[in-house]
Amino acid sequence: MGFGKGCHLHLIDGSAYIFRAFHALPPLTRKSDGLPVGAISGFCNMLDRYVENNSGADAATHVAVIFDKGSHTFRNDMYDQYKANRSEMPEDLRPQIPLTREATRAFNIACEEIEGFEADDIIATLACRAREAGGRVTILSSDKDLMQLVGDGVEMLDPMKNKRIDDDGVFEKFGVAPNRVVDVQALAGDSVDNVPGAPGIGIKTAAQLIQEFGSLEELLDRAEEIKQPKRRQTLIDNRAQIELSKKLVKLDCDMELPFGLDDLEIRDAVADDLLEFLNRMEFRTLTRRIADRLGKEPPAVIEAAPEADAPDVPEDAPIDHATYEVVRDAEALQVWLDRIAATGVVAVDTETTSLDEMRADLVGISLATEPGVACYIPLAHRTGGGDLFDSDALAPGQMPMETALEMLRPMLEDPAVLKVGQNMKYDYKIFARLGILVDPIDDTMLLSYAQHGGLHGHGMDALADRYLNHQCIPIKDLIGSGKSQVTFDRVEIDRAAPYAAEDADVTLRLHRLLKPRLHRARVTQVYETLERPLVPVLARMEMAGILVDRQVLSRMSGTFAQKMAGLEEEIHAKAGRPFNVGSPKQLGEILFDELSLPGGKKGKTGAYSTGADILEDLATEHELPGLILDWRQLSKLKSTYTDALQDHINPETGRVHTSYSIAGANTGRLASTDPNLQNIPVRTEEGRRIRQAFVAPEGRVLVALDYSQIELRILAHIAGIDQLKQAFKDGHDIHAMTASEMFGVPLDQMTPEVRRKAKAINFGVIYGISGFGLARNLRIPRAEAQAFIDTYFERFPGIRAYMDDTVKFAKQHGRVETLFGRRIHTPDINASGPGAGFAKRAAINAPIQGTAADVIRRAMVRMEAATRGIDAKMLLQVHDELLFEVGEDEAETLIERAREVMEGANMPVVDLSVPLIVDAGQGANWAEAH
DNA sequence: ACGCTCACG
DNA sequence: GACGTACGTGAGCGTA
After folding, report:
1. Which listed residue, A83, A86, A140, A924, has the most CB atoms within 10 A of its CB?
2. Where are the transmembrane segments (predicted)?
3. pLDDT tens per residue, range A628-671
4. How many Å apart are A677 CA and C11 C1'?
């Protein structure tokens, strides 16, 4: 049947369908090889629904899906900036594009694209031809650029809202009839497609002018008649630009097409072809549904193929500081916001006066929307130092910070705009202190950490060098170093801008590179559940801080100073001369040269070793080593804790705000810095008193919850040691049980000495035990230690198997894994020499330590929802412990809920064969809570 | 800048 | 067969 009267042509805007499917659906990957297929899946579902619903009197007789092809079109020849601010295609989407063509063909729907032409022009030409032939046309799209085609039997259908758009609909949108839509667009321009239009004229004004003058040509010819002087001048001055804009927005209705309308006649799908395609994409549900409808057996499910190598990514233009813009007013900022709204992704970086987020003041913000497209917004740069009177004045050429933040806020909080940062926790906190909650976020540092943990560092300079082959401007070039260092607000704007914008540019490029690789590395779940959600959680903990009683610390410092002075006198007397007790070098000379105590040189530097274990051994020979040990303990407590901690009390909050590095430790553990609150003393009575300085405010208490023996439990599970598992299930003393198994001592006759040995072995196993290490730890002969280990492996052969298997896996794959899929790379595992031993033990330890780290991360992410409604704040994490501050009335409720979260944190992803047990305590200070 | 020592899990 | 060793961190100090 030839196309003519009574026929109905449906034209589907394929690209719009794909983008919508891509953005509307969560990332989905093909199981066998990790290929992203979310957009294809959504696209197929839409096509299926389309086919299903296309029935009745209004049904299409002809249909085609039209795609764009190539980025350079005849419009670029007219205007090189056309669609210049259109973002690059997301990396996840790119590989799906060819498959959407295949999908269309699999549905046996005509699939058309012509190199160098936009889909819109093909749609326009087909619509015009169909109209001329006397048929009806429905364009399935919501693109306003297509509205100029409406009328005379051509309609649009917004597939999203299922809303028909006819003449009235177009008038609603543009204020004119469809045949004048291009005139309005030519005047108003389009920021998304980068059509210039007339400056200062939007759709409303344009429609008004066209209504008044009848057409664009008429308007331009009679522009002198316009009453408003400014508007008149704009139209006269920009005539050429407006005429160009019209050419850009006017669709080509008369293209040469290598096919005709008759080729688009509706055909039934070929069942086998369609099912083969869907099955190849591994869409189980859709395959079954369509097979059922077609009355066919669904094809056999495809088995997983081996890991495919990553395809190469296209090369971006090199980083060029000259392309960056300095944004100095609201108008310029608005252009960036429009651009961001169109792309939905932006890299953000803040410049501040300090590395301490709790004291840092915002100085400027940089943004990047695509490679090479970046800007710096200076906000609080000051005029140069030196001049005492002028030094605090704001430098000229900056927009008011309030204005900028209020303009940025909707974007930063917009759930539809992804904010990408490098170490986003920093920027998150800076914005949070200004009342802006940045969400959603991605973090390039964490993307790298999830994929390449153990291979290299994840700082921006390292990542830029490695993945972009680019050396970032060192911050020292701007602010100097050491004594002459200045804060960033003292850097001239023109010097700051290239540095700052570069950071955003680099971050954006890294994101494009690293994000799509997540699924190929099979760590999407790690990133999405263990890394990314932790950013706001840790930010809140750090901002909350813990209350520290300066008085307590100060008094202790005084006491320590006195005791140290007394000890020092005694030490000098015993040594026979005064010397610096804090100098290991001088101490070594006194002990081994002057007093001739036994012990020798050690270390590459040739210096005597004077570590605690050596001094303890020497304590039987002479009184001096014991005194040194006492002095050292006091010195450590004073300098590292009672003195230094006071300097970390924030003057505004009166609290201590640590910072956690999420990507610091290779195993997945957090690390705490500035100050480190994960190594506050607890093992000695004297040290433990420092914890009395960590307090809760009036009416509140500190609650500590810690996992009992979590690493040994995980070892028992992973290695499958029945006796250990049973002991944990029965709640028995695990070290006593081990001792009983090894040495044949009944539990009721267990001595502390035997138990201590078993405990050392249990821990040794976690660390990758060796005879030498155990011997040193227990201070027993090496042969004896080796005998213990042999016995241990005899009683628990599963442990030996775990260690061997893990090392074998590491050698084969260059990495090990936690139960939650975190990958820890072991690049040195195949090294020769002493390094090999280290790498082996690290490989044995990493899955155990790392799984425990994953468990508590999961608990932390879930904690907020689980404790909602309780006036409680999570303050600290110490590897297997969480510390909270809570109103004293609610402490018990908190313990109950937090314990439930922690003990079930492994579920539902990992079902452990041992129970996780959490001990809890509460008190006015950390010593009491523990 | 680096190594030593020692605080924690 | 020798080598040198417990795993993972961060901070302060002395020494170059």
Report:
1. A140
2. none
3. 999 999 999 999 999 999 999 999 999 999 999 999 999 999 99
4. 11
A607 Cβ within 7 A of any nucleic strand B atom: yes
Angle between helices A330-343 and A401-413 (to 10 degrees): 10
Are A501 and A321 a contacting pair, CB within 8 Å?
yes
Given a contact cutoff of 8 angstroms between Cβ atoms, the answer to whether A792 and A806 are in contact is no
Q: Is the CB of A687 under 7 A from strand B?
A: yes
Q: Environment class of residue A698 by beta-carbon count within 10 Å: exposed (0-12), middle (13-18) or buried (19+)?
A: exposed
Answer yes or no: is A672 CB < 7 A from strand C.
yes
Distance of CA A720 to the CA centre of its chain: 34
Q: Residue A36 in 3-state DSSP?
A: strand
A682 touches strand B (CB under 7 A): yes
* CA-to-C1' span, A636 to C15 (A): 19
A681 pLDDT more than 50: yes
Q: Which two tokens stand for residue A204?
A: 């409303």
Q: Is residue A557 located within the same domain as residue A642?
A: yes
Q: For residue A37, what is the domain's CATH number?
A: 3.40.50.1010
- Determine whether the distance from the CB of A610 to the nearest atom of strand B is below 7 Å: yes
Please state whether strand C lies within 7 Å of residue A557 at its CB atom.
Answer: no
Q: What's the token pair of residue A610?
A: 């004077």
Residue A620's domain is classified under what CATH number? Answer: 1.20.1060.10
DSSP string computed for A127-139: HHHHHHTT-EEEE
CB < 8 Å & 24+ apart, contacts of A482-486: A486/A385
pLDDT of residue A350: 98
Instruction: Give me the helices (H) in A7-80, please.
Output: 14-24, 38-53, 74-78
CB of A609 nearer than 7 A to strand B: yes
| Nearest C-alpha neighbor of A762 from the set A754, A668, A915, A749 | A754
Q: Quickly state the pLDDT bin for A305 (edges 50, 70, 90).
A: very low
Q: Residue A876 CA to C11 C1' — how many Å?
A: 19
Q: Which residue is nearest to nucleotide B5 (CA to C1')?
A: A611
- How far does the CA of A606 sit from the C1' of B1, in Å? 18
Helix%, strand%, coil% for chain A, nearest 5: 50, 15, 35
Same domain? A128 vs A229: yes
CA A488 to C1' C13, whole Å: 30
Chain B: nucleotides below 7 Å from protein CB are: 3-9
How many angstroms separate the CA of A271 from the C1' of C1?
69
